[in-house]
Amino acid sequence: MNLEITKALKALLSEPQKIVIIPHKNPDGDAIGSTLGLWHYLRGIGQEAQIIVPNDFPKFLKWMPSSDQIINFEWDTTKAKALIKQATVIFTLDFNHLGRIGQLQPLLEEAQAKFVMIDHHQAPADYAEITYSDVSMSSTCEMVYNVIEGLEGTDHITPDLAISLYTGIMTDTGSFKYASTTSRTHKVVAQLIEKGAKNTKAHNKVYDTNTPSRLHLLGCALKNMVIMEDFATAYITLSQEELDTYQYKKGDTEGFVNYGLTLDGIVFAVIFIENKEEGIIKISFRSEGDFSVNEFARAHFNGGGHTNAAGGRSELPMAETVALFKSLLANYKDHLKA
């Protein structure tokens, strides 16, 4: 975080503000961890702050300290609208385009508050007065730590704040195995553990609280996996019927796409998940090496993200979506090399 951003944030927070913190729709560990981490810090320095999520988040994140204070826009729309209207500052975390927040988009477009963006995805929009964007960062949680450090606020890092940021870094780095995990990331994590983050607790709560139905759904997903050796690609499909059969709950498919990359010789892994309620096929892309799934998702599936992790969507039926995907691979064969 550069000196200009630091000075701007110090000036902004030198006076009492009414602050709203918002992550992207379908918030993941980094989104919830970063918003909670920032919320704990802002409250700790005497600021008035609230977190509003566009929709619900997975059960395996609801153990996080003060997660019960998060306002769900879909469940408490009137209160959320009032808070956004009254806000003097709105922090947007872990996304960089207002199209990522669903029904909240028009409310934020009309809001009179000053906007602060903290995000590590590619191609940020320019809606914020203060933009801290860095695609080299492991996670938005690491960036929130940098903000706190830049504001000389590390003395305000409580165990609750520390474990919030630790959890987001842990999940967004694939338990510290992705290429975005740097020596700096490990130094930040070490500081968070020293501040009271119980790392074993975070791992257990996120990864070791499976239900039988989720494991059966994983079995279904792996059975559906198709391996295309000529393109070093593996993809999984999950229909709405299959999700219903295994009592799908939000977050149950988290991480399924990564199983494709555990196969020797596979550099591109994809999962297609039908969502009949929204009328779309939700798609997650993962890759190893230099193949940019961000560019692939942006070019073909109305999405984007990082070089090695991105999301997208299709309004075609499942069979047509998969057929389109397979037809595109020939154009990338030279780039898909193990």
Describe the structure.
This protein has helices spanning 3-12, 29-44, 77-86, 105-110, 140-150, 159-172, 183-194, 199-207, 212-224, 240-245, 293-300, 318-329; strands spanning 18-22, 48-53, 71-72, 89-93, 114-119, 130-133, 226-228, 233-238, 268-275, 280-287, 304-305, 309-314. With 338 residues, it is an alpha/beta fold. The chain has two domains: 3-207, inorganic pyrophosphatase (n-terminal core) (Alpha-Beta Complex), CATH 3.90.1640; 212-333, Diaminopimelate Epimerase, Chain A, domain 1. It has a six-stranded parallel sheet with strand order 3-2-1-4-5-6, with helices on both faces. Strands 7-8-9-10-12-11 form a six-stranded mixed sheet. Strand 11 and strand 12 form a beta hairpin. The longest helix has 16 residues, at 29-44. It starts with a helix and ends in a 9-residue tail after the last helix. Residues 248-316 form the DHHA1 domain. This is Bifunctional oligoribonuclease/PAP phosphatase NrnA.
Q: Note the overall shape.
A: globular
CATH architecture grouping of the largest domain: Alpha-Beta Complex
- Number of continuous helical runs: 12
Biggest beta sheet summary: 6 strands, parallel
The amount of helix comes to: 25-40%
Spatial gap, N to C terminus: 35 Å
Using DSSP, what is the number of strands?
12
Provide mean pLDDT, rounded.
Answer: 95
Radius of gyration: 20 Å
Compressed to H and E, one letter per element, the order equals HEHEEHEHEEHHHHHEEHEEHEEH
Number of individual domains: 2
Report the β-strand fraction as a percent range: 15-25%
Low-confidence stretches: none
Pfam families: DHH, DHHA1
GO molecular function: nucleic acid binding
Protein name: Bifunctional oligoribonuclease/PAP phosphatase NrnA
Organism: Arenibacter aquaticus
